[in-house]
Design a protein that fits this description.
The protein is mainly alpha-helical and about 150 residues long. It is about 55% helix and about 0% strand. Helix 4 runs antiparallel to helix 5. Keywords: ANK repeat, Repeat.
Length: about 150
């Protein structure tokens, strides 16, 4: 991923990384690795962030949101192994499962997220989570399959 692409993601999400250059560099690497699917770089970035796998951008997107949205299963696996929270919501009230369904409907990621749930109540809560558009994950999946949802 090009540095300009990472800058655009960070700027788009309103992060003022200029004020803390060390966090800036680490967060940039973290975001770039998650979005590009570079699991080796992601592991290093997590270590550089002292294991803070739920570090978020201003819109509350995390590396797990991005890895789910762009279909990077190995990155999702690593983030979950390192303790990423599956229920943190972004600014649109979407959870990671929304993102996996909104991408290309990444079935393996959806299955992984369900398998990591602590029980049926947790799965039910994830399925019933509604974003700001009033969509559940099932709505997201149907929009994706009908071609009405586009990932930018």
């Amino acid at each position: 991923m090009e540095e300009d692409d990472v800058d655009a993601i960070i700027e788009e999400n309103g992060v003022d990384y200029e004020s803390d250059s060390e966090l800036s560099s680490n967060l940039r690497d973290f975001v770039a690795a998650a979005q590009s699917g570079d699991v080796v770089a992601l592991r290093t970035a997590i270590d550089n962030l002292n294991g803070r796998v739920d570090e978020t951008l201003e819109d509350n997107d995390s590396a797990l949101h991005l890895a789910c949205l762009y279909g990077h299963l190995p990155c999702v696996q690593l983030l979950l192994e390192r303790g990423a929270n599956m229920e943190i919501k972004d600014e649109d009230e979407a959870i990671r499962l929304h993102d996996a369904c909104a991408g290309e409907g990444y079935l393996e990621i959806v299955e992984l997220l369900f398998s990591r749930a602590s029980g049926p109540e947790y799965v039910k809560r994830m399925i019933e989570t509604i974003d700001v558009e009033g969509d559940t994950v099932l709505h997201q999946q149907s929009k994706t399959r009908m071609g009405r949802h586009q990932v930018n």
